[in-house]
Amino acid sequence: MREIKVIARLMLVWLPVLLLHACNGSGSKEVRLYDTPDSGTIRISVDESFRPVIEEQIKVYEATHPGTKINANYKTEAECLKDLVADSATKLIVVTRSLTAKEAGYFNDTLSFVPRSERLAWDAIAVVVNAKSTDTTFTLLQLQQLLAGEVNNDKKVVFDGLTATSTIRFALDSILRGKKFDFNKVQAAKNSKEVLDFVASEEKAIGFVGISWIGNPEDTAQVSMLKKVKIAYIKCNACLDSPYVKPTQQGISSRRYPLVRGLYYILKERSSGLASGLAGFMQYERGQLIFRRSYLQPVMNFDVRNVIVNEGLKKE
């Protein structure tokens, strides 16, 4: 009996080690029981309308932290929020809003804590038209009437989906303001890229996309697309001279451009893991510079300093 007890104790001690060794054997991937800001693999969910800039954030983070792998699933905003609730492996999502009081209460009741959320940047909805179109200026009233089917019945309006996307929600809240879409006029594409492709191929099409898909003049794909589509000007109702404004960084930061929204992370992680590391990276200087280079408006203020450059340095 004593020998049996000794054998049982040895098995309890060595069984986890043997299993771990087996997992690391030929043809198997290493199994990590936890991740850190510098190591491990995680899955996150991201609002598809921010795919270009978040792909850049992940690329730089992984290059800086070689032991990490971040698998991003690009979805509608509603699907991202669903992942946060239903998928225990999804510890971080990137969407256009923070949690509501009801959602925060749910997490507090079920997990005994509320996920942390912070604004990362300011984004804008760009209105794009075909390169041959002469309609390049709109007021908010004209956009409202267009989406409600009250004017320009020959136009074809396209969104990155008809339900559950952040762009649709923004249009409902900030443009239609109680009115309903005319679904005889408004069409759905699968994603933001398809919106741009549709507008590029249809002279009478008008599309709505996040500015990170079309506003970066340093992105060769976006520069190429700007030969096929044009970004429209929207009237600034809050300005004294009522100008028509494009969604530039200056227009976003000053709110002269009226179709502005926030970009947030929501973090469902108590310990300091890889999800926390990525969230912190995007929130502070290096990540904020990436947002600025992608022509969103970062929330961090960057000082501009005057320097004197000595162009007459002596050669050694």
> What radius of gyration results from the CA coordinates?
25 Å
Unreliable stretches? 4-32, 311-316
CATH homologous superfamily identity of the largest domain: Periplasmic binding protein-like II
Please give the largest β-sheet.
10 strands, mixed
**H and E order:** HEHEHEHEEHEHEHEHEEEHEHHE
Total DSSP E strands: 13
Helix percent reads 25-40%
Shape: globular
Q: What structural category do the secondary elements indicate?
A: alpha/beta
CATH topology of the largest domain: D-Maltodextrin-Binding Protein, domain 2
What is the CATH first-level class name of the largest domain? Alpha Beta
Mean pLDDT: 88
Tally of contiguous helical segments? 11
Distance between the termini: 85 Å
Write out key terms for the chains shown.
single chain, 316 residues, alpha/beta, D-Maltodextrin-Binding Protein, domain 2, 3-stranded mixed sheet, 11 helices, globular, disordered C terminus
Structure description:
With 316 residues, the protein is an alpha/beta fold. Helix 10 crosses helix 11 (285-293). It has helices at 2-23, 51-64, 77-86, 101-111, 140-147, 166-176, 192-201, 220-225, 249-254, 274-283, 285-293, and strands spanning 40-47, 68-75, 90-95, 116-130, 137-138, 156-159, 186-188, 205-210, 229-231, 233-235, 244-245, 260-267, 297-298. The chain is built from 11 helices and 13 strands. Residues 4-32 and 311-316 have low confidence and may be disordered. The longest helix has 22 residues, at 2-23. The strands form 2 sheets. Strands 1, 2, 3, 4, 6, 7, 8, 9, 12 and 13 form a 10-stranded mixed beta sheet that branches. The chain has a 3-stranded mixed beta sheet with strand order 5-10-11. The protein has 2 domains: 40-121 and 262-298, D-Maltodextrin-Binding Protein, domain 2, CATH 3.40.190.10; 123-261, D-Maltodextrin-Binding Protein, domain 2.
